[in-house]
Write a structure and sequence with these properties.
This protein is an all-alpha fold. Helix content is 58%, strand content 0%. The longest helix is centred in the middle third of the chain and has 21 residues. The model has no long low-confidence stretch (mean pLDDT 83).
């Protein structure tokens, strides 16, 4: 999580801490927070906003295409947590 001002990064959820694709958190959030029809209508815009946020905070060498690919791969996170988590 990035605060609106400053450069500090804050971890809020340590449940499944791991090194992973950057957009995995976006996938998990969108996949578990929005009904399917809303997710489908908004996911490209949300991925663009997420990617722009990373770029504004100095992330380099991470294209929008990589972000979308990581977002799609990260969609497996929800079912994995549901099945393996318990």
């Amino acid at each position: 999580m990035f605060p609106p001002a400053g450069h500090d990064v804050v971890a809020v959820d340590w449940q499944t801490i791991t090194v992973a694709h950057p957009a995995r958190d976006l996938s998990y959030f969108v996949g578990t927070s929005l009904p399917t029809h809303e997710r489908r209508a908004m996911e490209k815009m949300l991925a663009q906003s997420y990617d722009e946020g990373l770029l504004c905070r100095g992330v380099e060498d991470y294209t929008f295409e990589q972000c979308v690919e990581d977002y799609r791969f990260g969609q497996l996170q929800g079912p994995v947590i549901t099945v393996i988590g318990p």
